[in-house]
Amino acid sequence: MDLIYTKDYIENFKEDPEKYLSLGISFTCIYILMCLLFAYGAYTFKNILMIGYILLELLRLIFLVFVITTWLLVLKENTMDIGVLIGTSVAGSFFLLGMFYSWICTASLPVLINEMERDEQAATIYKLTQMLNNNHSTPTQGLQPVYGAPFDSDLSSYQKTDYNKHF
Length: 167
Fold this sequence. Notes:
It is a single chain. This protein has 167 residues and is mainly alpha-helical. The chain has a domain at 7-107. The protein contains six helices and no strands. The longest helix has 31 residues, at 48-78. α2 crosses α3 and α3 (48-78) packs antiparallel against α4 (82-107).
């Protein structure tokens, strides 16, 4: 069996497997911590907690692309059946397609949270303008007039004419 690109890696792993085992456990612990931070960030709508997981997942997917590519190159060197190579490359491609789709869905969550916050802000502004429209009292000292309306004028007639054109 010809292990074209993987021979050195397998020899290094055979020489010191404890180093690779501790490295794998460390990466897994970091990944679990990032997953928990992502879940907490999604629960509390905090985008900053989700960024670490999104970047770590992207690095993991890039690593998977290299692993699957190397696996297909080793398979190509060691088999004469083209059907097996085509089948495994199609299966690997669909696997990577699904993994990247899941990553894109995960990466779009902070964007969705930002849009929800903007919608909530727009709803709050709309509600405040409705309250302003319903309030017929003149502004107290220190407040600026709405669109240049004088303090002693009737705000309801002013709002019906000029203010509603802007919204």
